[in-house]
Design goal:
Layout: H1 3-7, E1 12-15, E2 21-24, E3 29-31, E4 33-36, E5 39-42, E6 45-47, E7 50-52, E8 56-58, E9 61-63, E10 66-68, E11 71-73, E12 77-79, E13 82-84, E14 87-90, E15 95-97, E16 100-102, E17 104-107, E18 110-112, E19 115-117, E20 120-123, E21 128-130, E22 133-135, E23 137-140, E24 145-147, E25 150-152
Parallel strand pairs: 1-4, 2-5, 3-6, 4-7, 5-8, 6-9, 7-10, 8-11, 9-12, 10-13, 11-14, 12-15, 13-16, 14-17, 15-18, 16-19, 17-20, 18-21, 19-22, 20-23, 21-24, 22-25
Length: about 150
């Protein structure tokens, strides 16, 4: 087996360069885990865990855990536990089901699951959260909906 075959197999895609941007194109489905030191854009579907030292942008579908530095979700469906070291931005037309652990988060769509932020949580007027929120600070625009408890620590 060559070195390349040892590094890349059907269940794991590995990239070694931090400055690169990998893309899962629309109409592409990946079944298996993705690990990268670079950034990743997901316009297609991923069924498996995503681990990135860089930033991740999702406009497609993810069913699996997402771990990264910063995460932006737009026009997508995500069934996942999310862990970021920095920021999560949930833009319009997004449905998230799963727990979210992050530093800061801005929500403009729908989240079903608990949110634990070591920093700030911001909810726009169009945000709906069905779950408990724990943060050091929270900002809520008029019109946002929360079904769950709030804990400011």
């Amino acid at each position: 087996m060559s070195e390349m075959e040892k590094t890349i197999n059907q269940n794991e895609i590995v990239s070694e360069i931090i400055d690169e941007m990998g893309t899962i194109a629309a109409n592409t489905k990946i079944t298996g885990n993705i690990t990268t030191k670079g950034h990743l854009a997901v316009a297609g579907a991923v069924i498996g865990d995503i681990t990135s030292k860089g930033n991740v942008i999702v406009t497609g579908t993810v069913k699996g855990k997402i771990s990264c530095s910063n995460l932006m979700l737009e026009g997508c469906n995500v069934q996942s536990e999310i862990n970021t070291t920095e920021c999560v931005i949930i833009k319009e037309k997004v449905n998230v089901m799963g727990k979210i652990f992050c530093k800061d988060i801005t929500i403009m769509s729908n989240v079903v699951g608990d949110i634990v932020a070591s920093g700030k949580v911001g909810l726009s007027k169009d945000a709906t959260v069905k779950g408990n929120i724990t943060a050091s600070a929270i900002g809520v625009e008029v019109g946002a909906k929360i079904e769950g408890s709030l804990s400011i620590k």
